[in-house]
Amino acid sequence: MATYSGSCHCGRVRFEVQVELDHVRVCDCSICRRRGALIHRVLDSDFKLLTPLENLSRYKFHTRQATDYFCPNCGILPFRRPRTAPNLWAVNVRCLDGVDLDAIPVKRVHGSRLP
Questions:
Q1: How far apart are CA 36 and CA 34, in angstroms?
Q2: What is the pLDDT of residues 3-41, one digit of tens each?
Q3: Which of 9, 36, 38, 62 has the fewest CB atoms inside 10 Å of its own CB, making it the most exposed?
Q4: Model pTM?
Q5: Short-list 19, 23, 63, 24, CA closest to 45
Q6: Per CATH, the architecture of 2-113 is what?
């Protein structure tokens, strides 16, 4: 596992994550299609938030079980708590420094099929 630093576009939201980037997830639900995030899920123990969570904006939709966290300044979503795994962090790999996105296999998931 490697440690990566991550941030939103403006740098107000900062975090670190320990992860083996063996894949990213691309979801076809309505919000993920529009967002274009490349997601990798990690345990709480592998995620370190360097910005107080209360400094981020939150968004909940549909069943209101997932929580999307984003920077109130630049609007970037660096991570979220997914509906289907609320005990994990879903990190937007596009927000990690030093990652070769073309070298990571893509796993397609079908969030559009969830009730």
A1: 6
A2: 999 999 999 999 999 999 999 999 988 888 899 999 999
A3: 36
A4: 0.91
A5: 19
A6: Beta Complex (2.170)
